[in-house]
Specification:
9 helices; unfolded protein binding; HSP40/DNAj peptide-binding domain; 3 domains; ATP binding; Helix Hairpins; 28% helix; DnaJ_domain_CS; metal-binding; three-stranded mixed sheet; chaperone
């Protein structure tokens, strides 16, 4: 993570305020090594339980809900989480409210030359700009034929959706936004020591530069709320196992009217009992009798569009590969691949008396035809 380059900066940072902020991991009931999926699962479970609409008459419900939302907004973001893990809850909130780093901020503990500060400041700001919305990644399974021919599927996933009452602004109808007193409308605040200053997104307004005087009664000022969302996805023909498709704007709703994130769909194509894919080619096995292999003939083979008749030439060998041109997979406006037929020759396990006599006669002729050749070479 890019934030790791700032380890020297935060090593000597200590908050000096008297306020005790509740740990975000504790808020979500997680250990500090929780995975991203565990963080998301805990958030959706708690948000559903503590949403004020589910706790009417409980005056503390809104406060708990906003605390859960705040913890999730930090821990879901890898870079914000890394910073939070290094400085702790009190220092993290102090950085976002314009507080001074205090006497514990040691100028000598930076671990980098002061000539690098301006470039580092720019990178720091770039990493911690307001994150408008959450991108969502979900797995989807397709059968082999669905992946080849394309299909339409409805999928469900947990995400934040826009509040219909306030249209995502977080404000009550008719309420006006005011200039944020913490950052004075700049959207960012500074923490400093001596002549060195660092800038970060204002936690009071979330980088907006303004605060809402009266919160929406439906979403309680967030502009979004967690919900199970359903979308219908058109999968194009020829998609592959492990491929990821992007659906712009179908991710989490952006807080307070910001653009939504994207939905990323990672495909898992299930194996087929008949067909095997190699690039744009498709492979199948076809069994023929030993007499067909010797004399030639025809055989029906399955294809992606039905059955086709394949000509077997005399003398076809076991393991020989025959090609049906243009019968493979067509994808992304490219010409279709081929179908490769792997020949298997089946040998009879039992013979009738007549069949055995015929084969014995054939074997006798083979021996007789080989004997003059052996004598000539001898």
């Amino acid at each position: 993570m890019r934030v790791g380059t700032y380890t020297g900066l935060y090593r000597e940072f200590h908050a000096t305020g008297t306020s005790h902020s509740r740990d975000y991991y504790e808020v979500l009931g997680l250990s500090r090594d929780a995975s991203s999926s565990e963080i998301k699962k805990a958030y959706y479970a708690l948000a559903k339980i503590h949403h004020p609409d589910m706790n009417k008459g409980d005056s503390d419900a809104e406060k708990r809900f906003q605390e859960i939302q705040k913890a999730y907004e930090v821990l879901k973001d890898d870079e914000k989480r890394a910073l939070y893990d290094q400085v702790g809850p009190s220092a993290y909130e102090q950085m976002g409210s314009g507080g001074d780093a205090g006497p514990g901020f040691d100028d000598g503990g930076f671990g980098f030359p002061f000539s690098d500060l301006s470039g580092m400041w720019s990178e720091f700001k770039e990493n911690f700009e307001f994150d408008p919305a959450e991108n969502i990644e979900i797995p989807v399974e397709l059968s082999f034929m669905e992946s080849v021919k394309g299909c339409t599927k409805k999928v469900e996933y947990n995400t934040n959706v826009r509040c219909n009452l306030c249209k995502g602004t977080g404000a009550a109808p008719g309420a006006k936004a005011q200039v944020c007193k913490s950052c004075r409308g700049r959207g960012s605040t500074c923490f400093s020591k001596g002549f060195v200053s660092f800038e970060t997104t204002c936690s009071a307004c979330g980088g907006e530069g303004r605060v809402i005087k009266e919160n929406c009664k439906s979403c309680y000022g967030v502009g979004t709320f967690p919900k199970l969302k359903e979308v219908e996805i058109d999968f194009p023909p020829g998609v592959k196992n492990g491929e990821t498709l992007r659906l712009a704007g179908e991710g989490g709703a952006g807080p307070r009217g910001h653009p939504p994130g994207d939905l990323f769909v990672k495909l898992k194509v299930l194996p087929d009992p008949i067909f095997r894919r190699q690039g744009s080619d498709v492979h199948v096995d076809s069994s023929i009798s030993f007499t067909q292999a010797i004399l030639g003939g025809t055989v029906q083979v399955p294809t992606l569009t039905g059955h086709a008749v394949l000509k077997i030439l005399p003398g076809t060998q076991p393991g020989q590969k025959l090609c049906l041109k243009g019968k493979g997979i067509k994808a992304h406006h490219k010409p279709p691949g081929n179908q490769v037929v792997n020949i298997r020759v089946e040998m009879p396990k039992t013979l009738t008396r007549r069949q055995r006599l015929i084969i014995e006669e054939l074997a006798k002729e083979e021996v007789e035809s080989e004997t003059p050749a052996a004598a000539a070479t001898g």
